[in-house]
Design a protein that fits this description.
alpha+beta; nine-stranded mixed β-sheet; five-stranded mixed β-sheet; 20 helices; 22 strands; elongated
């Protein structure tokens, strides 16, 4: 038996591994299986170059759990190690045989590093044994053992077949990993698409035998194969049909609604990147998604927290990104600073924008039909990512209440003659609730204005963003002012009432409103316009909506501000109200018109609504 000390610069390497080098204890299994995949990949490479002439046989990696003896074993039939290689690779922490192999064979399919990755085993094991036998002819099996200290033992062992068994004697810190369910969970999470088959014992499946009344469920014990070694993203786009992409989506996210479409990523210069990104149906939501983009490094799962890899708006997508250029075996906290990660971010943003533009150009009608599901994603990207905005200008759409779609340039051209104000500003009129604001929309259209439907959760932010990007453009909500003032002109209509009559009408409505926060204003509008209208100043209303959406409190809740605008040219004011003899009737009628205006804005609730209903019944008598 040989004894020795692991070649490390500090005796503190083991606590360092446990506490700092890995952000999640559970990744020990991923690292050890990755080493087994490396060993198997190398053997296949040697065989392909005729450097290994033996039978490859079954290359499946086996995971065995022995709850009674508190061991977890990872066994591969790869290249194994000689006694000298064990000393070289296991006893020099952070030395990577994978790195040496890649330098010689320029292979891109070797996953990890048989250095720090191997030592992650000590996060859960109080003792680790490695029983290994090299593929090289005449090699003897050896057993290496270490208890989480720099001291180790190395001795001859009994092992007939080539390959390596890593045996973890699970300690108190890792007792959770002696549960079959927990190991299955980790295998499903980290090893679902590894390129070598992974087997974890057997599982019970149920088959139906017989037909009709004779049919019965029969239990069948089958191999518990964990992974699909040839996932869709590793294939060329030409090898896949739509049904294959949809089937893979269900493999990633079982029982999920079908995606709208997808992008197949495939790049080998200046960095390696493959993957498939799916566009889910988002509708009007940017809530945290259950299905997230999964990041892989050579088919090894790294994380589904990809905010350090892609711009935030792209996290709304689903799918897989796989790149061997993403560091695998250290804490994820350094990902954002990695130069390859930054290049990947730019590439993915460009590919997504190009795909959307291609779909828009190829079949605009189809693109418009998908806008309801796409617009949240596109708007989020335009607001948050400048590079995406520049590309999205070509395919970002505006949708009006008549169900027509326009690019930004098309829409500004459409409204330039009718909706340019006295300051040469193009005024974009919109509704955030076309049904609730129907009377306002109808009035605006009667004036020849076009009204956009902007009811998406991000539209408030988008409008402010566009006002900074587009020259001389402003957005106003259809109920932010009276229709004559939505697009400010120098024209002025005359009131049919005398100044004295107007004064009395204003006093009457101010008396009806009382000490409330509403401001009463008289305007000479068209006789066809409503007798009383509620308007909500654009700036204050936007501030309120931003406050509500972001949960920000600007020193207290902003008060709801609105104006009561009385149309002195409407017959109900100019003829009926002013000619009433009884002051009591005038007040009652003015109050009714005020309540009617509030109802039109969905602002009547509770006792006020009950009062209005009673007033309406009385007036009908």
């Amino acid at each position: 038996m040989q004894k020795g000390q692991i070649d490390v610069r500090s005796n503190d390497i083991f606590p360092l591994i446990k506490k700092f080098l890995y952000s999640d204890q559970e990744i020990f299994l991923r690292e050890l299986i990755s080493n087994g995949v490396d060993a198997t990949t190398k053997l296949k490479a040697y065989a392909s170059k005729n450097e290994f002439k033996g039978e490859l046989g079954d290359l499946t990696i086996d995971i065995r759990l022995d709850e009674k003896n508190k061991t977890l074993t990872i066994s591969d039939r790869g290249i194994g190690m000689t006694s000298d290689e064990v000393v070289k690779y296991l006893n020099q922490v952070a030395f990577s045989s994978a790195q040496e192999f890649m330098e010689k064979y320029k292979s891109e399919s070797v996953i990890g590093h048989f250095g720090l990755g191997f030592y992650s085993a000590f996060m859960v094991a109080e003792r680790v044994e490695v029983v290994t036998k090299s593929y090289q002819e005449g090699s003897k099996a050896v057993k290496w053992s270490c208890e989480g200290e720099p001291d180790y033992t190395l001795e001859d062992a009994d092992k007939e077949d080539r390959g390596t068994d890593v045996i973890l004697h699970i300690g108190e810190e890792g007792k959770d990993y002696l549960k079959k369910e927990r190991i299955q969970e980790l295998l499903d999470k980290y090893s679902k698409f590894l390129p070598v088959l992974i087997r974890f014992g057997t599982k019970t499946e149920y088959e139906t035998e017989g037909e009709g009344d004779d049919a019965k469920q029969v239990e069948k014990e089958v191999e518990n194969i964990i992974n699909n070694p040839e996932p869709a993203w590793k294939k060329l786009p030409g090898e896949l049909e739509d049904k294959d992409y949809k089937a893979f989506y269900q493999e990633l996210y079982p029982y999920s609604q079908e995606p709208i479409f997808w992008i197949h990523l495939n790049m080998d210069y200046p960095f390696n990147l493959t993957g498939i990104l799916y566009f889910p149906k988002l509708n009007n939501s940017i809530e945290v998604q259950k299905n997230k983009i999964q990041l892989y490094s050579n088919q090894v799962f790294v994380t589904d927290d990809v905010k350090t890899i892609v711009p935030e708006f792209l996290t709304l997508l689903h799918g897989v990104i796989d790149s061997p250029d993403i560091p695998l075996n250290v804490s994820r906290s350094h990902l954002q600073a990695d130069s390859n990660v930054k290049k990947i971010t730019s590439y993915i943003t460009k590919k997504v924008a190009d795909k959307l533009h291609d779909i828009f150009k190829e079949d605009r009608k189809d693109f418009e039909s998908k806008w309801k599901d796409l617009n949240t994603f596109i708007k989020y990207g335009m607001i948050s990512e400048e590079k995406f905005y520049k590309k999205a200008e070509k395919f970002g759409l505006l949708h009006n209440v008549d169900d027509e779609f326009f690019t930004f340039d098309e829409y500004l051209e459409k409204i330039k003659d009718t909706q340019t104000d006295k300051n040469d500003q193009k005024v974009v009129i919109y509704s955030n609730d076309p049904k609730g604001q129907h009377s306002y929309v109808t009035t605006a259209k009667r004036y020849g204005y076009d009204v956009l439907s902007m009811d998406n959760i991000l539209d408030n932010h988008l409008m402010q963003h566009l006002e900074t990007k587009l020259e001389k453009v402003t957005f106003v909500r259809v109920d932010s002012d009276t229709v004559d003032n939505l697009v400010q002109k120098d024209e002025k209509k005359e009131s049919v009432l005398s100044e004295k009559q107007q004064e009395k009408v204003k006093e009457l409505f101010q008396q009806v409103v009382g000490d409330h926060k509403e401001k009463v204003e008289l305007k000479a509008l068209s006789p066809e316009d409503m007798p009383v209208t509620i308007t909500k100043p654009e700036f204050m209303r936007r501030m309120q909506e931003m406050q509500a959406m972001q949960g920000v409190n600007f020193g207290g809740e902003l008060p709801e501000m609105f104006n009561i605008v009385v149309n002195t040219n409407n017959p109900l004011i100019a003829e009926k109200l002013v000619n009433m003899k009884s002051q009591e009737k005038k007040e009652r009628f003015a109050k009714y018109l005020q309540k009617l205006a509030l109802l039109n804005q969905n602002m009547l609730t509770g006792a006020e609504m009950s009062e209005f209903v009673e007033m309406s019944v009385e007036m009908l008598k």
